[in-house]
């Protein structure tokens, strides 16, 4: 079982947003709260069950990121992946 932490880059494994990249904002017992800086902002994160999320990359400092920073981080990571 994977350990989920705020600031980790994650990919959605299920749902209408399958394969979309997010950053984990918060974690509780059953759910993670995901942000992408566009539709899912820091004010309105997406609530998703842990089993529907795959951890992709290490942890970033969420205190230093705003919505624009999150968009840039995800965009830069997607470029590196290709």
From TrEMBL:
Name under which the protein is recorded: RNA-binding protein
Keyword Signal among UniProt keywords: no
Gene Ontology CC terms, in alphabetical order: ribonucleoprotein complex; ribosome
CDD domains found in the cross-reference section: KOW_RPL14
Keyword vocabulary terms for this entry: Ribonucleoprotein, Ribosomal protein
The species this protein was found in: Dorea longicatena
InterPro entries: Ribosomal_eL14_KOW, Translation_prot_SH3-like_sf
SUPFAM superfamilies from the UniProt entry: Translation proteins SH3-like domain
Highest rank taxon of the organism: Bacteria
């Amino acid at each position: 079982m994977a350990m989920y932490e705020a600031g980790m880059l994650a990919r959605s494994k299920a749902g209408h947003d399958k394969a979309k990249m997010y950053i984990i904002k918060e974690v509780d017992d059953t759910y993670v709260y995901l942000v992408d800086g566009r539709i899912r902002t820091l004010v309105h994160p997406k609530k998703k069950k842990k089993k529907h999320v795959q951890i992709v990359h290490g942890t970033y400092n969420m205190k230093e990121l705003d919505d624009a920073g999150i968009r840039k981080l995800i965009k830069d990571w997607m470029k590196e992946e290709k």
